[in-house]
Amino acid sequence: MKANNFNNFLKTIQTSPDLLQDIPYWNRESERQPIYQPFPEWLSADLIKALADVEINELYLHQRQAIDRIQEHENIVLSTGTASGKSICYQLPILNNILMGLDSRALLIFPTKALANDQLNTISEIKSVIECFAPERSHLIIPSVYDGDTPASNRSTIRERSNILLTNPDMLHLGILPHHTSWIKFFQHLQFIVLDEVHIYRGVFGSHVANVLRRLHRILDFYGSKPTFILTSATIANPLELAERLTGLPFKLVDQDGSPHGKKNFIFYNPPVINEELGIRQGIVSASLDFSRMIMQYAVQSLLFTRSRRAIELIIHELRRIFPKNDTSIRGYRSGYLKSERREIEQGLKNGSVTLAVATNALELGVDIGGVDLVLMAGYPGTITSTRQRAGRAGRKNNESAAIFIASSSPLDQFLVRHPEYIIDKNPESALIDPNNPLILINQIRCAAFELPFLQGESFGSLSWEGVSQFLEVLKFQGVLVNRGDKYFWLSENYPASGISLRSTATKTILLQVNSGETPRTIGEVDFNSSLWMTHPGAIYLHEGDPYLVDSLDVENGIATLAPTTANYFTEPMKSQEIQIIRDIKTESNSGCDIHFSEIEVTSRIDAFKRIDWETRAILSVEPLQLPETKLRTFGYWICIHPNIVEKMREEKMWFSDANDYGPTWEKQRNLARQRDQYRCRICGLPEADRPHHVHHKVPFRMFTDPIKANELENLVTLCPNCHRLAEINVRIRSAISGLKYSLNSLAPLFVMCDESDLGSYADPAADFADNQPVILLYDAIPAGMGLVETLYHKHFELLQNAFDLIEHCQCQDGCPSCVGPSSESGLGGKRETSFLLALLMERKELNGPSL
Amino acid sequence: MDPLFDRLKALGLVQANQVPNKRKEKSSKSFEEIIEGEEVSNSQGSCYLTRSFYPWNYQHGDVTFIMKDDFSLVADAGKAQGVRGKELSSLLFIDTETTGLSGGTGTLAFLVGLGYFDKNGFNLVQYIIRDPTEEASMLLEISNFIEKFSGFVSFNGKAFDIPLLRARYVMNRIPIPFEDLSHLDLLFLARKLWKNRLKSRALQDLEQEILHIPRTQEEVPGWMIPEIYFDYLKTGNAEPLKGVIYHNGMDIVSLAALFLHISNSFDQISTIENLHPVDYFSIGQLFWEMKINDLAESIFLECVESETLPEEMHLQSIKYIGAMYKKQERYDEAITFWKVALEMGDIESAVELAKYYEHSAHDIQKALECTESADQILSKRGYHSYQDRQLRKELKKRKSRLMLASQKDKNHVSTQNS
What we know:
The complex is a heterodimer of chains A (852) and B (418).
Chain A: H1 2-14, H2 17-20, E1 25-29, E2 36-37, H3 45-53, E3 59-60, H4 61-71, E4 76-79, H5 87-99, E5 105-109, H6 113-133, H7 135-138, E6 143-145, H8 152-161, E7 164-167, H9 169-176, H10 184-188, E8 190-195, H11 203-223, E9 228-233, H12 239-247, E10 252-254, E11 264-269, E12 273-275, E13 280-281, H13 284-298, E14 302-305, H14 309-322, E15 330-333, H15 339-351, E16 356-359, E17 374-378, H16 384-391, E18 401-406, H17 411-418, H18 421-424, H19 438-451, E19 454-455, H20 465-477, E20 481-484, E21 487-490, E22 509-514, E23 521-527, H21 528-534, E24 540-543, E25 546-554, E26 559-564, E27 569-589, E28 593-613, E29 619-624, E30 630-641, H22 643-651, H23 666-676, E31 694-697, H24 707-710, E32 716-719, H25 721-747, H26 749-752, E33 759-767, E34 773-780, H27 788-794, H28 796-808, H29 831-841
Parallel strand pairs in A: 4-9, 4-10, 5-7, 5-8, 6-7, 8-9, 11-18, 14-16, 14-17, 15-16, 17-18, 22-26
Antiparallel strand pairs in A: 1-11, 2-3, 12-13, 19-21, 20-21, 22-23, 24-25, 25-26, 27-28, 28-29, 28-30, 30-34, 31-32, 33-34
Chain B: H1 3-10, H2 31-34, E1 38-42, E2 45-55, E3 59-60, E4 63-64, H3 72-77, E5 91-98, E6 109-118, E7 121-128, H4 135-146, E8 151-154, H5 161-171, E9 182-185, H6 186-194, H7 203-211, H8 225-235, H9 241-267, H10 277-289, H11 293-305, H12 311-327, H13 331-343, H14 347-360, H15 364-381, H16 386-417
Parallel strand pairs in B: 5-8, 8-9
Antiparallel strand pairs in B: 1-2, 2-7, 3-4, 5-6, 6-7
Helix pairs in contact in B: 6-10, 7-9, 10-11, 11-12, 12-13, 13-14, 14-15, 15-16
């Protein structure tokens, strides 16, 4: 019945010309047969019996390979598909040791509490199966979750007795390592360390975790333990490199997936364009609603992933209107729901009573729901890895399944919908970490010194004693370390781990408080730097889709005060950035430009903000702000455009834009302007001769909704034809580099697996640090960087090629938020200029460029 | 400073004002010249100790140091059965001074004070490390010292000093010498004994309020202690450490005095006249909780007779007796006490009576009367809290149940009559 419905569902799509024309790509993957291997001889009979109980009578190839290596004490990283049975690979060796009667303990680290609890359930189930036929041995298995929610009264028993400890990196950092002496037995008998879902450990979080593991290694050395590391990862480009950088140990990669799957469809859906000029497409919410209707019609069990909580509520609300009777078969699933409610939905997905679950990433990681027939993704989840993980939720047993990616109009979505190979074929994403980032190190070395005194000559992961000693000297100078004999003793009242979050580098955060009712309510927090542009006084701050007006920002006390508002405008900060190049590290000269990788300092200041009408996008006012400037020392990758390219752009006579209808006042105002300027060019002073000079709009005409305002005298200036041409050219160059900046910044996350906000960008038509040549610059947005832009520097041409591709294939006329960004200040879209510039930078043969 | 420091500054990771640049004068006098004591050496190196002595009959505030032959009641009340029946000289009084209160492996105990009674009086030994490298040697000394004792007496040592020392032993790879020792933590007892009388049960407050001991000019407040030690390590000037040693010494002597005081109080429970009436009542509560029932009973009976005990505790004593008799199923005696309490306007006792009449005496009419009384008292007083409103609900329920039962009774009686 179900399969039939699913087939009908697919057939409906296949036979609908309307849908098909918006499906640029449909990937069909045929079914895969399992590759089985027998259980190894050393595996305990109890386990074999317990597995038989859940109908596992053999192992898949990768599972056997993994446990064989683990048995040989080799560290492994397991990188196979979603639902390929990765957790068995660590469960078996761990349980085997315990059932043999050894005092063998295991530390299992999960990126979230939910995952640890989920794994506790799985292990408890195995335990209860064994209990049926071998109760005395099943009691040897003592699994426990130890995290911030563990009641204090249970903790000492767990420390003493548990032999399968499930926790998260934050708890290891905050609660376990600084108290390692309370865990003597545990550490002395530690045989296995499992790190699940390591692809999550990237960027700042990953770099912190790598250091937490360095601290763990010091403790293990102290207790003389040498456990085997078992890591699992989603399929990323560099699992082995990531494993080795995280742990500092050699690893073997196991990635030959022996698990079976049925036929898989991956459908790329690009909602139709509903406004050609502005390049506006049907929104992802409305497109997902259309699909949801079909899903309910055919009763195809599905998961719909959205990007925000708000989208979930919107979709559910609409669906409830359409299908009032089916209330319980449509469910929302997100963080913030009660635990019991979530369990109920998970259960409903397993037993089939829930047809459609609308979820955020809360459902993404590991949470066990079995498989569904169809996965819908409303918008790109941010990384290819998680796109693939979500798609991997589709497929139960060997049945046919489908995943549908609904592209939003963001540049990355639009790029991917035209380049499905990035999602279908080998994942290009590398998880990058920099455990030696000094910001992270200085904090982690504090924690390490608290846990065990540093010894003269001791290294810290890949950081040699020379490196370590510099940090120790700083800490000594700050008065928290004392050097006596060959040791550095922690001598401070502080408990350093408590002030250090693994998940951010922000040292200072601002609480967002809403003053409604009697006591102020805290709705969230932002880091100090973001607070300056997100929650400056007068800003409109969106929290879960609701607008708040920022009343005040108290930087000293770390509080921003907000009030709910019904204002029909939004605000946009006007940021000024100055770049200073500290030193060039790498440079490369190409015919059109030089590229640089440099250490830089970015000075940012929010000078003012604009109030912009939601409806018309008209600027209602510009308000000045007095805020402190911030300095960021980091690394940048920048492109410096050669003068010959600028010249080439000049040669292309591309400044005569389409004639505007300048409105009824134009003739009169034009003459008044010339009169005011005494019929001379305001730049070169040339007086008018036989023909009248041009009159130029300082703020371009297009920016105004009211032509009379545009033509006000303050906005007009008299220019000779030559100077007018130059003025327009500068506008053109400006829009070309700002378009290029926008598209590079949007695409970069695809290559370095980060959020867009992890990178900063800067464009300047005449950068003073580059002899007044035009510059486009991307930088790591955290102090001392994470290695993101260094990778981008090495992928320069790939990046340009893809940006060109993105812009060329965008269906808009002259630039849109899907390619070169919203209309620039100049009022010009900049699409043609940007792709012209890109063509030149890529040294294409047809140097005269695409026709403009 | 080295280039890393400048880099960190440029990154905004260390602020100029974070950097303490106070280079204090190095001391010209050595540690040993300032702190009177002796150096001890063992296989782990050396450390330093100072000794003091307080002979029998030494007067510490209100307490006179005299031999105690039996302190079993204190051991029972403090859940330290291991020292029950032991001699006074087998107790080791302990207090440490540390580099912080947060706990964890980065906190050091740089001064460990140990006190004990012998045939001459009270002895105080304070081990101190002149720098962190001496820790192992100090711990080893303490290991050897501890051997002849059977239990610790401390103030909050269960939660703080002992776990901290345990961590230090592990860090120095020396076997933990006190895993078999019993532990009498007076904080636990003090909280129970003085909760009805004192706002704070910190050792120093007990010292002033209960033992009446003033500290001299030498005293330094506890919160300054870590900083004093850090300063000493940086400058080598041991002078301020004198205050720390005084502070620790006083803590231990007061600890011993507090122990004697509690022990003396327990020896004098035959009549309320001997003690502060509130303390007397509190001892009753403590014994009640520790299930030392015979003593609790005699204390509360004394309290019921007392003229000096505050009204509220007087009532409580009556209720304790009621509860005690109820447990022992001595209902006839219990109800007399509950009735007295009901006279005093106690709702709970009214409820107890109602329960008794309903379930044990099967006198529905009386049960109803008592429930009525409880309800009346409650409504007169008003419903101020969640508990009050809950109670009111319960009473309503009880009342309607009793009404029903009484109706049935009547029917029953009438059918029988007809």
